[in-house]
Amino acid sequence: QVQLVESGGGLVQAGDSLRLSCAASGRTFSSYTGGWFRQAPGKEREFVAAISWSGDSTYYADSVKGRFTISRDNAKNTVYLQMHSLKPEDTAVYYCAAGLRVGAFNYWGPGTQVNVSS
Q1: How far apart are CA 66 and CA 97, in angstroms?
Q2: 112: which of 9, 36, 52, 99 fits an S-S bond (Cβ 3.0–4.6 Å)?
Q3: CA distance 10 to 109
């Protein structure tokens, strides 16, 4: 069992940076793929980024490629999402997820709100 809690959300202006953190509990977290998803008002939840258990492989949605960076520190049971050059369209609730592989996320955090003003 893995419990996830996101933090770091807030209100920023377009062009600013923000770093989200996802703290995990459960001793097997280091063996899970970590991911970030987001859901904007009136839209479906969408994939943002994912990272393999070792951190060697990362995956990004085209909309954030080059602006967002996912990383992890297994010693701290934490996955990060560094966001640069934020745009108003990045406004959403951001969710952390964990699973055995990309596309098989079965643990989710409650989400953290990110608002980007123009």
Answers
A1: 21
A2: 9
A3: 17
Nearest to 109 by CA among 41, 26, 31: 26
Decide: 47 and 63 in contact? Cβ < 8 Å: no
pLDDT, residue 96, reads 98
Query: Which tokens belong to 95?
Result: 């969710």
| Beta pairing class for 10-13 and 112-117 | parallel
Six-digit token string for 28 = 């097997």
Instruction: Say if residues 114 and 90 touch (Cβ distance below 8 Å).
Output: yes
Q: Give the Cα-Cα-Cα angle 76, 82, 102 (nearest 5 degrees).
A: 70
Residue with tokens 């990309």: 102
Query: What is the block-wise mean pLDDT of the chain (118 residues), using blocks of 10 residues?
Result: 95 98 87 96 97 96 98 96 98 97 93 97
Q: For tokens 């600013």, what's the residue? A: 16
pLDDT computed for residue 30 by the predictor: 85
